[in-house]
Amino acid sequence: MDHGVTQAAAAGTIAIGGDLVVNRMGFGAMRLCGPGIWGEPANREAALDVLRRAVEFGVQLIDTADAYGPEVNERQIAEALHPYPDGLVVATKGSGTRPSREQWEVDGRPEHLKEACEASLRRLRLERIDLYQLHGPDSNVPIEESVGALAELQREGKIRHIGVSNVDEGQLARAQTAATIVSVQNQYNIADRTSEPVLRACEREGIVFLPYFPIGAGWRAATPSDAVARVAEKHGATSHQVALAWLLRHSPLTVPIPGTSSLSHLEENVAAAGLALDDGDLAALA
Predict the structure, then answer these.
(1) For residues 39 and 45, is the Cβ–Cβ distance under 8 A?
(2) How many CB atoms are located within 10 Å of the residue 186 CB?
(3) Is 2 part of any domain?
(4) Directed axis angle between helix 110-124 and helix 72-81, to 10°?
(5) In a domain, 3, yes or no
(6) Which of 171, 230, 242, 252 is least buried, going by the fewest C-beta atoms within 10 A?
(7) Domain coverage including residue 166
């Protein structure tokens, strides 16, 4: 494969919420922050360049959250890309909080979510966020109340579409009673299919599924299996590209959002949009 030529459009398109049509290879911006997803990166200009190059490669969905940095990632996106090109969807999330570099907590109170959304609008320099997702359910707040707050913001014109993240099937069903849910963002990849039941629920409901950590579990890519390595060798591709191409074939509703702070890795990831796995490959990777 030629890493540098294939554009994100090679993966085809999908409509989020029926009206946000994007190429099915997105970009997760989280890793552009400093170590531990905290503070500014060592090379600020390089991070901004990755964002600009992602758009040049045809990426039309950029995923972020107010907790990344915190706040740093949203500011990076606005600095690099505002005024945003037509067709670019910036998806952000609220409810995640960062009391310190080591702590990731959740605040799903309606009042917090409304303040968080307003702050994200300011940082992203937007009047309306195309896709705003609940970063995770708060065990102290019914998910219906959290999503209900997002529905209020939607009625006020501050959110176009609502999604949820880090949910199980039951939580998704409950969220759907409070608002129309157009996306689910859960950890999911070829090595970790714990969210398979949630993906299948999304297929039944026509909800777009955004797999995060799409190349491997945790902060580092999983060691490729023998099967992945064999398929990669067959196609002259990398194991990372096979993992992303598998997600695209495994379900018509997936939009992988691989993240990186490296231009070469960005090119490699986007090139996976043009890797066509056949039925034999899928059987080998099942």
Answers:
(1) no
(2) 22
(3) no
(4) 30
(5) no
(6) 252
(7) 8-285
Tally of domains within the chain: 1
- The answer to the question of residue 222 being in a domain is yes
Strand 13-16, strand 20-23: pairing:
antiparallel
How many other CB atoms are there within 10 angstroms of residue 63's CB atom? 27
pLDDT tens, residue by residue, 226-252: 899 999 999 999 999 999 999 999 999
In the predicted model, is pLDDT for residue 5 greater than 80? no
Catalytic residue list: 68
pLDDT digits (tens, 9 = 90+) for 169-191: 999 999 999 999 999 999 999 99
pTM equals 0.95
Q: What share of the chain is helix, strand, coil (3-state, %, to 5)?
A: 40, 20, 40
* pLDDT 10s digits, 127-151: 999 999 999 999 999 999 999 999 9
pLDDT for 125: 98
Q: How far is residue 286's CA from residue 113's CA, in Å, rounded to a whole number?
A: 39
Tell me, yes or no, whether 276 lies in a domain: yes
How would you classify residue 72: left for phi > 0, otherwise alpha for psi between -120 and 50, otherwise beta? alpha
Q: Where are the beta strands (DSSP E) in the chain?
A: 13-16, 20-23, 27-28, 61-63, 89-94, 96-97, 105-106, 129-134, 159-165, 181-187, 208-212
